[in-house]
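Tokens for chain A. Residues wanted.
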């Protein structure tokens, strides 16, 4: 009997939830929400309802939600949009383990005569609040620290960092893309001024995201045109995508405590199973970690080869981040954590989903020892270091 495939790459993307798919289909019948006729007003009502649901799910006001086309766009809008309202030469702080959407935008700001600081992390992938505070300058306009890392799952002390930033008069952005299914996104409790989300990471459709921007944050747009989203993001809204995202977010946040407990137990079972069955492994990323994340280095293996062998065995995982068009470039996150090459080259990311089952985890644990052993043997011979 052919067994079902096991999908453990939910940090790359999640399956569209049926409820979100239904919301997408309903909204596909609608027209342009900016039109003044009855069809337009109907679409506007659907857009308003989605905005209301999203705002309620994260404790925000409706006018603080900017719909975008991706997490990448939201991160870019946060960094470029806030910095460009400041004086030239203003200072922006972020960390070495951010997604390339943040690091790329920061690099762009560097080319535009802004001052930038990239904070280091410790070997567990954590940002030190004291180091964060000392990096802030009188000229700092914005700090951006991700809520939970997409490669190793470490969760940063966002409320603490945001409070420091507020005390120092610095706007604080967090990339919360990986958090939607698992952590509270309540912007008041977190104390953040800007927050990025992407629908496809919590059961919504791909190609739609949002930026929460507190009502007193001024944003310079990065797209120019019809002035939608209160002038902050021009372009006709992707109403089906937005409706699907809103439905998925509402469900993800209301189910998150139960889902996190369940995923956490299964992740621990996977972690313990791997530790018991395979020698020479190392778990990357310190606690607290996202409950669905497990990044493991298998010494003496090559992550790409391991990924392919697992794929052939019916198991979908990733080697670090899948966001760079499927490429397997060296992980800037593991490098920032100071891992030496022996551990960096064999790092695999297992990310569970809300429907992952115990029997799937047990199948992965059963399959891994022989797959890893098969890869280790020839590698040792080739290198002649055995
Ligand atoms: N930020 C983080 C932490 C991510 O993991 C990702 C995607 O993997 C993004 C941003 C980009 O989101 P999107 O795929 O919607 O552009």
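Reply:
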């Amino acid at each position: 009997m052919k067994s079902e495939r096991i999908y453990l790459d939910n940090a790359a993307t999640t399956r569209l939830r049926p409820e979100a798919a239904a919301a997408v289909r309903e909204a596909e019948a609608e027209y342009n929400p900016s039109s003044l006729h009855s069809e337009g007003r109907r679409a506007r009502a659907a857009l308003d309802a989605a905005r209301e649901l999203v705002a309620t799910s994260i404790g925000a006001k409706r006018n603080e939600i900017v719909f975008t086309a991706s997490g990448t766009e939201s991160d870019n809008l946060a960094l470029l949009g806030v910095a460009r309202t400041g004086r030239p030469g203003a200072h922006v702080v972020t960390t070495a383990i951010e997604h390339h959407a943040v690091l790329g935008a920061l690099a762009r700001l560097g080319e535009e005569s802004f001052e930038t600081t990239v904070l280091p992390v410790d070997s567990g992938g954590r940002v030190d609040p004291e180091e964060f505070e000392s990096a802030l300058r009188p000229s700092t306009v914005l700090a951006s620290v991700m809520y939970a890392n997409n490669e190793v799952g470490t969760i940063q002390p966002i409320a603490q960092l945001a409070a420091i930033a507020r005390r120092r008069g610095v706007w604080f952005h967090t990339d919360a893309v990986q958090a939607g299914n698992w952590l509270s996104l309540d912007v008041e409790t977190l104390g953040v001024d800007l927050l990025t989300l992407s629908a496809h990471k919590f059961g919504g459709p791909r190609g739609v995201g949002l930026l929460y921007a507190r009502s007193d944050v001024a944003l310079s747009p990065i797209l120019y045109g019809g002035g939608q989203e209160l002038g902050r993001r021009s372009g006709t809204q992707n109403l089906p995508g937005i409706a699907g995202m809103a439905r998925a977010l509402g469900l993800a946040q209301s189910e998150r405590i139960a889902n996190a407990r369940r995923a956490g137990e299964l992740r621990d079972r996977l972690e313990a199973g791997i530790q018991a069955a395979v020698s020479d492994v190392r778990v990357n990323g310190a606690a607290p970690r996202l409950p669905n994340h497990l990044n493991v280095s298998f010494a003496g293996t090559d992550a790409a080869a391991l990924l392919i062998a697992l794929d052939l065995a019916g198991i979908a995982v990733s080697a670090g981040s899948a966001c760079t068009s499927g490429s397997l470039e060296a992980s800037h996150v593991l490098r920032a954590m100071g891992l030496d090459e022996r551990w960096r080259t064999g790092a695999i990311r297992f990310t569970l989903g809300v429907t992952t089952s115990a029997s799937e985890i047990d199948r992965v644990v059963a399959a891994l020892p022989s797959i890893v052993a098969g890869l280790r043997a020839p590698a040792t011979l080739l290198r002649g270091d055995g």
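Residues 70-72, 75, 99, 101, 146, 150, 175, 177-178, 198, 209, 323 surround pyridoxal-5'-phosphate (CB under 6 Å). DSSP finds twelve helices and twelve strands in the chain.
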